[in-house]
């Protein structure tokens, strides 16, 4: 279905976005398989509706909420964001959704809420990848509360003005454009406000390779590959790599969140 | 046993065409012939295809001697040189794709990757080790090197292990496939070690050869590739 989204120019790039086809056929969503084409091929049986999200932890307004009730109070925005994968490729994506801060504030987190943890749905009969053990299921992710409340943090429910396809994390997923793509947890069913830093799936899988913060940083290499440059998807056979920008180009907006932190240690 | 003519006129050309299929599939896809496509990330697709086939052909080359002995197919060895050279070809193409299309000849990045990223260091080492094998694959070089030829070409054992290791280390989460390759390589190497264990009657070495003159280079040795003297 069509979403009536208003572009938020303040948080949108002027770069031309990748094609709908690129964005919906080249995905890392291990719940549906390991190949980039697997999510598009294997997510047909997944049912993103009806959908509920359970909210718990350090907040006043906890409980289980219908997807529609979560989204309805907020106007849908379009935001054209960069997406930088930790595998050193990138895209430009026109997301539709609501600011994460607005969504979280309706649950009235208390002063004890220092972090927000997210969980992906666990449905091995609809998600063939969850029957394998490539990662620990269900997928979990988390943000520091100030990161979550940052105006760039976004809950996407669509792209290109259409409802989010299953392979992109239907019906709602996280988008934090200054972080590597794997932070953008998909098909969220649980939001938990916590006092302590929550575990995150890729960090559990390979702690030396993937940190909690996962901020895009050309100066901190992944142990097995350089993060200094990236391949822009859609640049064709001879489009060479381009330099990766600090915080994926969102340095002005987010650098203050990490002032005084050693980003080599907190990668 | 097929006649030398059948091997030369039928088996070898057929194998050549078969080994060229992965290359042709990439070329077809690059020009989008018959609806083929390199997909959303064409450089990655090309690099993976060449790397996969380089590894597969290395392992197939390593399997020739065991298969010959298990199934009693002495003529199989005559196909080994072509298999090895195709393995080398795909490994070189894999490397060139990385150098030209992926890195775009960005030398500081390339040199840093080779020096600092273990999986690239390992892959590059395997490539370097393959060069002398390819260079000495001619009949002339075999004759010139004599017995040393065989010791030199035993480096394929190390190369195969390095290639699997290179693959294993670049996989992000699911290591099933590289581990399958590892198991196959270990079986092939383990069988050789078993054959070479001390005190074993050297039946393989004493197997009679139909035409000794045509196999002037220690022809009855396990590693004979002198298929076309």
Automatic annotation (TrEMBL), chain B:
**Pfam families of this UniProt entry?**
Ferric_reduct (PF01794)
InterPro entries, from UniProt? Fe3_Rdtase_TM_dom (IPR013130), MsrQ-like (IPR022837)
Keyword annotations from UniProtKB, A to Z: Cell membrane, Electron transport, Flavoprotein, FMN, Heme, Iron, Membrane, Metal-binding, Transmembrane, Transmembrane helix, Transport
Presence of the UniProt keyword Transport in the record = yes
Q: Which cofactor does it need?
A: heme b; FMN
| Boundaries of every Ferric oxidoreductase domain copy | 51-164
Highest taxon of the lineage: Bacteria
Its localization reads: Cell membrane; Membrane
Residues passing through the membrane, by range:
53-71, 83-101, 121-139, 151-169, 175-194
Note on cofactor:
Binds 1 heme b (iron(II)-protoporphyrin IX) group per subunit. Binds 1 FMN per subunit.
The answer to whether keyword NAD applies is: no
Its main localization is membrane
Q: What does this protein do?
A: Part of the MsrPQ system that repairs oxidized periplasmic proteins containing methionine sulfoxide residues (Met-O), using respiratory chain electrons. Thus protects these proteins from oxidative-stress damage caused by reactive species of oxygen and chlorine generated by the host defense mechanisms. MsrPQ is essential for the maintenance of envelope integrity under bleach stress, rescuing a wide series of structurally unrelated periplasmic proteins from methionine oxidation.
HAMAP family per UniProt:
MsrQ
Quaternary structure? Answer: Heterodimer of a catalytic subunit (MsrP) and a heme-binding subunit (MsrQ).
Q: Which family does it belong to?
A: Belongs to the MsrQ family.
PANTHER family registered for this protein in UniProt: PROTEIN-METHIONINE-SULFOXIDE REDUCTASE HEME-BINDING SUBUNIT MSRQ
Q: What is this protein called?
A: Protein-methionine-sulfoxide reductase heme-binding subunit MsrQ
The species this protein was found in? Steroidobacter gossypii
| Taxonomy of the source species | Bacteria, Pseudomonadati, Pseudomonadota, Gammaproteobacteria, Steroidobacterales
